[in-house]
Specification:
This protein is about 40% helix and about 25% strand. It is built from 9 helices and 7 strands; from the N terminus they run ααβαβαββαβααβααβ. It has a 7-stranded mixed β-sheet with strand order 3-2-1-4-5-7-6, sandwiched between helices. β1, α3 and β2 form a beta-alpha-beta unit. Bound molecules: S-adenosylmethionine. S-adenosylmethionine binds next to α1, α3 and β2.
């Protein structure tokens, strides 16, 4: 399956809107608390997107630290640069998670939230993550298992059809369940695995799932194999359930905190440049 969304300006703005809701702000707080960043640390954000997390990271490590972000989308890199323009120790560039422009062992910490489910070659990308992290360094990876999505609906068949079409928005919609063995194969030791649920028992504009309705409708409409009328009725049904106080949405994201062992495998000459 190929990556279904390229985050151009329009898709990047949709992510900014959804990722600014209290649901995803709370996720970033959980990520930061798990990372336990210290002043002066060198941190890499892989697939930094609009730079919301990178900005928080920069505040945590301060100007004696360093933040680098890469993203495959130039629109996303532009948003990160704008957000962190007053933080000169935070820099961003367009690059692929599977081939990063950094030296071996360069970072104390790396983080990648909601990115590996999009990359084509997860194993190559995890090898790159391992290479650029210093021995003893730590990394946090967070991804969604889209099969954990529960959404109340008046029409189960229509919901199934829409969600099946939406699965193609990323390369690996069930990545979390197979990630721990992949991380161990790469050479990491797993320090912690956790679930981060996003739960919206009410239909409310300032929630993750409210933004996701339009996100899904736009993606599925663009594919063209479900009639626009059906997509419209699907979205209207969710709003109607909200009005009747019968709305219910839940999905799980999974968090992995890993370490690169001090005596782990070594790389020879720099591979990323
Ligand atoms: C859903 S957004 C998440 C953004 C950010 N990590 C966050 O949590 O706010 C997914 C991001 O991954 C980026 N991405 C997808 N494939 C990539 C790849 N192979 N290398 C680097 N970035 C990639 C996308 O361009 C997009 O910015």
């Amino acid at each position: 399956m190929s990556t279904g969304i390229h985050y151009d300006e329009e898709w990047s703005q949709r992510i900014v809107q959804i990722y600014s809701t209290p649901d995803v702000v709370a996720q970033r707080e959980a990520v930061l608390s798990t990372l336990d960043l210290q002043q002066g640390e060198y941190v890499l954000d892989i697939g930094s997107g609009p730079g919301l997390l990178a900005h928080d990271i920069a505040k945590a490590v301060g100007q004696t630290g360093m933040v680098r972000g890469i993203d495959i989308s130039d629109a996303m890199v532009a948003l990160s640069e704008e957000r962190c323009s007053n933080l000169p120790f935070a820099e961003f560039q367009v690059a692929d998670a599977a081939k990063m422009p950094y030296s071996n062992d360069e970072f104390d910490v790396a983080v990648s939230t909601q990115v590996y489910e999009y990359v084509k070659d997860v194993s190559a990308s995890l090898n790159e993550l391992y290479r650029v992290l210093r021995p003893g360094g730590r990394a946090l990876i967070l991804d969604t298992d889209w099969e954990t999505l529960i959404w109340n609906t008046s029409d189960q068949e229509r919901m199934k059809r829409i969600l099946a079409a939406f699965e193609e928005h990323c390369s690996h919609p069930r990545l979390p369940r197979i990630l721990a063995p992949k991380l161990r194969e790469t050479g990491f030791s797993i320090q912690r695995q956790d679930v981060f649920p996003l739960f919206n028992p009410k239909y409310h504009t300032d929630t993750y799932s409210h933004g996701v309705i339009d996100f899904i409708a736009s993606f599925v409409s663009g594919k063209g194999d479900i009639a626009p009328r059906i997509i419209k009725e699907w979205a209207e049904d969710l709003r109607d359930l909200g009005k009747r106080d019968e709305y219910f949405f839940g999905i799980n994201r999974y968090l992995f905190l890993v370490a690169k062992p001090v005596a782990g495998k070594r790389f020879g000459k720099t591979q990323g440049n």
